[in-house]
Structures are given as structure tokens and as C-alpha cells.
Amino acid sequence: PLVLGVESTCDETGIALVRGHELLVDRTASSMDQHARYGGIIPEIASRAHLESFLPALEDALATAGVELSEIDAIACSAGPGLIGSLTVGNCGAKTLASALGKPLYGVNHVVGHLAVDQLVDGPFPDRFIGLIVSGGHSNLLLVNDIATDIVELGGTLDDAAGEAFDKVGRLLGLPYPGGPHVDRHGQAGRCDAIKFPRGLSAPKYQEKHRYDFSFSGLKTSVARYIEGLNQQGMELPVDDICASFSEAVNDSLTAKTVQACLDHDIDTIVIGGGFSANSRLRELLSERAAAAGLTVRMPPLRYCTDNGAQIAALGANLVAAGVEPSDWGFSPDSSMPLEVTHI
Ligand code: ATP
Ligand code: FE
Ligand code: MG
């Protein structure tokens, strides 16, 4: 079946077409340029941008794929989690299309979509895998028994998400918003053992209750104190070393617990997803540690790490294939959709 995917959780309007695990087209329009000067996403601006981009992106996608609207078999839209205004615009567009075409509509979980997109590149998923979702809003470990119907949340961050922590450290260092990619780039030029920063929830006493949880706010405070200290002494900031050492602390926690989750559950495959899964040190360290433990890591190419329509179409295709009931016409977007809920 041919599935149209509509993404609109935040600042990206994504439209994509997927047939099975084959991606026909993926179009993204971002309003990030309009938010950057505010140092954060302005929801009203994001909603308006979705309204402006939706139809042009749709027309462009259909023309590029050489597909007529009537050929679409099902429509999937991100129903949450995300900004309610942004979601509402995308969901209205998707509902209108589905009702006019008389096709089933699936309101899907955007975050689960971050994992689903990997199938479009690396093929069908194994029976079970450990999913590491790392993005601007999430840092979670999932036990995925079936991407369409059976996801168990093993743990997640108690405070900041990995991308959020990177963005905050970027701000402390005066780097442009969003800081994540800039901190990553500076870190590549620095020494990861230059400064000793703490690893949250790694002490043995946390091994029971917080075995699969993360905490990055203490680390962020520790980076802030380090910067303050140097500023007070009028010393120049070793930006590259700070970024490398901070990045190492975040990625040490993420990768250690991901490998641990595999060993604990006798699972041999890891799938990563979300904007932060573009992080160079995460990809490097996870590859090393997984290989050492005899595990396979599946990492989507960088263009599918940040928000896109392909992830929504991919998850929609999984739901159709699993024979899941379409969503009720009257559904509302859910800004805090739980991770174990794949669709609304
Ligand atoms: P969610 O998916 O949880 O709803 P989101 O959609 O806002 O959150 P994404 O768009 O998936 O998040 O990811 C954006 C985040 O990824 C930002 O915090 C950004 O700084 C971060 N990011 C992107 N590339 C990198 C990188 N190379 N290194 C570190 N962080 C990065
Ligand atoms: Fe996202
Ligand atoms: Mg985004």
C-alpha cells in the first residue's frame, strides 16, 4: 500500500510517500530560520509556517513522485507529542485529505516514528530490538517487540533530554541556536578527557531503580560552573575541550545503558533515532561499544535523524501492515503522547 506521511510536531512540515519499506519522496520545509533569533521555537510562528508550507510541500512531493492523490491508500500524520498548534494544522490537513479521498487515517506517535524511519534505509526490523530515542524532547530506552503494536519503555531522562542539554550548553558558550550541532562540531576538535564532568545516575546505587534512566541537568550545572570559574579569572574558554568533555559525559551514559539493556534482555540489535542521533560522538562510541559486545547498531543517515515526513509514513506503513484499526475521525492531537502508544 502507498502511504502518505504528514509531520507537523514542531518547526518542520514534512510530507513523504512510502510503499512498504520503499521511500518514494520526502519533502521538508523548516521554519527554524524564523525562530533562531529568539533562541527557541515560537509556537505561533511554527503553526503559521505549517499552514503556509503544507499544500506546496504536498504538491511538490506528489509531482516529484509522479503520484496522483487518488493512488494513495492510507494517510498517517503525527498526532503527538509536540506543539498543539503545529499538530493541529498538520492534523487538519491530513483529516481533510483522508475524508475527501475516503482513505483511512492514522494519527501516529512522532517519537516512535524516529525509530521506524530506519526501515526505509536498512530494511525490515528484526523480531525484537532496543530503541534509543535521543532528540530535543526525549532520551529514552525502549524495548521494541513490534514497532506497530508492542513497545515497552525501559527508562528515560529524569530531567533534560540529550539534545536539550546540548542546546543549553551551546547557549552557555554563546553558540547559535540550536546549539547541538555546533557543540558536536567543536567537540570533534577537542580532547574528550580534558575536563572531568559527572556521569548522571551511573553510581552502583542507581543500578536498580534507575538502571535505564538518564540525568543530564547536574552535568549541565557542572559545565556552567566550570565556565563561570574561568570567566571570573578572566581566562579564555577552551571551547573545543569543554564541548568534547561534555559530549563524552552525555554519550558515555547513553551508550553504556543502551548496551546494558541489550545484554539484560538478550537482544542483539540496537536502533537509534531522533535529532540527537546525528551526534558524531554518539555514533562513534555506540558503534565501538556495540561491536565489543557483539551487537548490531542500526543508525539512520543524518537526513532522517531530524524531524521528517518519512518517519511518519514509515510508521503508518507498519500500522497498515499489522492490520491495526485506523484512528477515529474525531481525534485530537496529544501534546504528551506516551511512548508506548504507537497511534491514537
Ligand atoms: P522530539 O522528537 O522529542 O519531539 P524534537 O522533534 O524537537 O523532539 P528533533 O528535531 O528530533 O527534536 O531533534 C532536534 C534536537 O537535536 C535539537 O536539540 C538539536 O540541537 C539536536 N541535534 C541535532 N543534531 C545534533 C548533533 N549533531 N549533535 C547534538 N545534537 C544535535
Ligand atoms: Fe523529533
Ligand atoms: Mg525539529
UniProtKB/TrEMBL annotation:
Limits of the Gcp-like domain: 23-313
Pfam families, alphabetized: TsaD
Residues that, per the record, bind substrate: I133, V134, S135, G136, G137, D167, G180, D184, N279
GO cellular component: cytoplasm
One function term, GO molecular function aspect: iron ion binding
Residue positions binding Fe cation: H110, H114, D307
Cofactor: Fe(2+)
EC number from the UniProt entry: 2.3.1.234
GO biological process: tRNA threonylcarbamoyladenosine modification
HAMAP family hit by this protein: TsaD
Xref: PANTHER family: TRNA N6-ADENOSINE THREONYLCARBAMOYLTRANSFERASE (PTHR11735), TRNA N6-ADENOSINE THREONYLCARBAMOYLTRANSFERASE, MITOCHONDRIAL (PTHR11735:SF6)
This protein's name: tRNA N6-adenosine threonylcarbamoyltransferase
Organism placement in taxonomy: Bacteria, Bacillati, Actinomycetota, Actinomycetes, Actinomycetales
Gene that encodes the chain: tsaD
